[in-house]
Amino acid sequence: GAVVSQHPSWVICKSGTSVKIECRSLDFQATTMFWYRQFPKQSLMLMATSNEGSKATYEQGVEKDKFLINHASLTLSTLTVTSAHPEDSSFYICSAPRVYNEQFFGPGTRLTVL
Amino acid sequence: QQQVKQSPQSLIVQKGGISIINCAYENTAFDYFPWYQQFPGKGPALLIAIRPDVSEKKEGRFTISFNKSAKQFSLHIMDSQPGDSATYFCAAPQGGGGNKLTFGTGTQLKVEL
Q1: Spatial contact of A53 and A71, defined as CB atoms under 8 Å apart
Q2: B44 contacts A49? CB cut-off 8 A
Q3: 3-state secondary structure A51-114
Q4: In terms of pLDDT, which residue wins out, B97 or A9?
Q5: Is B36 at the interface with chain A, CB within 8 A?
Q6: Which residues of B touch A34 (CB under 8 A)?
Q7: Nearest in space to B83 (alpha carbons), one of B61, B103, B105
Q8: Interface touch A34/B100, C-beta < 8 Å
Q9: A1 — pLDDT class (breaks 50, 70, 90)
Q10: B19/A87 Cα distance (integer angstroms)
Q11: Where does the pLDDT of residue B63 fall: very low under 50, low under 70, confident under 90, or very high at 90 and above?
């Protein structure tokens, strides 16, 4: 069964609003989670590393003020897309490592900004 | 940062045939190489992974072959089925500590009847 969940699975919002996406590890604790972005027919692009108890680390070129990450507990990380614009429309996926590098991915969240 | 080159970009195989996808990496310091399978609209699912202390790992119809000297690893899908039609990504540790992975560009596999 699924070991990482995401909510919501899809969201449509108006330009300028903020959207929060939740990522939960279901049967294990994750001090680190990862957030990816995927455009149609493209690979996964790592956006940031979510660290429980400390600030997230962002990949080069990712705006930390636009993509707010909070690792609230050992099983929950949230990604908030602030002041969303149509170019932020994408498929957002989180992952969590369970043992060593064995990462499990969530089912993804499809964000559409009108 | 680790680069991972994946080929082919797309692949069409007849039902029952063998699908082969290749990946090449740069940094030899790392020790975990997974393959992920992704269906449209879904998150990637870990398919099979290998550590470089072995040259081959087999799980059911899926086999990873690993060539450490050539810095290459490949995924073989035996007896390919239409249900295997998906996008496949190889990955390698990104380096710099932690569990970050760098993904290949993906291979879109279609298995035809």
Answers
A1: yes
A2: no
A3: ECCCCCEECCCCCCCCEEEEEEECCEEEEEECCCCHHHCEEEEEEEEEECCEEEECCCEEEEEC
A4: A9
A5: yes
A6: 99-100
A7: B61
A8: yes
A9: low
A10: 36
A11: very high
Contact B46 A101 (CB under 8 A): no
CB–CB contact A101 B93 (8 Å): yes
Nearest CA in chain B to A3: B45
Q: How would you write B5-70 as a 3-class SS string?
A: EEECCEEEEECCCCEEEEEEECCCCCCCEEEEEECCCCCCEEEEEECCCCCEEEECCEEEEEECCC
Contact B60, B76 (CB under 8 A): no
Q: For residue A100, what is the nearest residue in chain B, using CA coordinates?
A: B99
Give the tens place of pLDDT for each residue, B34-43: 999 999 999 9
Residue A100 pLDDT more than 90? Answer: no
d(CA B7, CA B23): 6
Q: What's the pLDDT band for B32 if we cut at 50, 70, 90? A: confident
Of residues B45, B98, B103, nearest to A44 (C-beta): B103
The answer to whether residue B39 neighbours chain A at the CB level (below 8 Å) is no
